[in-house]
Design a protein that fits this description.
This protein is of the alpha+beta class. It is 19% helix and 18% strand. It has a domain of 89 residues: Fe-S cluster assembly (FSCA) (GMP Synthetase, Chain A, domain 3), CATH 3.30.300.
């Protein structure tokens, strides 16, 4: 390519530059605050999402859908524990106050959480407020149960 056909480096579009770590973003407009990206957890790091993913292994024995997609998990709270461990509090509900599978769901939830690395104490609280409704289910759960 001759010198006159080469693109001028100064004329390149600055919005499409990349760095070794990926695209370079533009600066925010004057007066706008830049939104910092959420930190990416290290592989194996305990996060609320990781605990919720683990809880998807717990299947309601009557409905055959996992308890996360059913909307039974209200709160996952992680707190520092002893010896670099993480304590986990889960607040969950049941599909009905007299759910016969309740004790099994609580025990299975505790078991799958305790299987994660770095877990200290695990507390599972069953709460009935707010009461569970079908609106709390994910679209996948509704599809599995044939609820449209």
């Amino acid at each position: 390519m001759s010198e006159e056909n080469k693109p001028d480096a100064d004329a390149t579009d600055q919005t499409h530059q990349t760095s070794p770590s990926g695209p370079v973003s533009e600066s925010p407009a004057h007066g706008a605050e830049a939104e910092s990206p959420a930190p990416v957890p290290a592989p194996g790091e305990l996060t609320e999402d990781r605990v919720r993913e683990q809880l998807k292994q717990v299947i309601d024995p009557e409905l055959f859908v996992n308890i996360v997609d059913l909307g039974l998990i209200y709160v996952v709270d992680l707190q520092p524990g002893e010896e670099d461990k993480t304590n986990v509090l889960v607040e969950m509900t049941m599909t009905s106050p007299m759910c016969p599978a309740g004790p099994q769901l609580v025990a299975n939830s505790r078991q799958v959480i305790e299987a994660l690395d770095g877990i200290g104490e695990v507390e599972i609280k069953v709460v009935m407020d707010p009461p569970w409704t079908q609106d709390m289910m994910t679209e996948d759960a509704r599809d599995q149960l044939g609820i449209f």
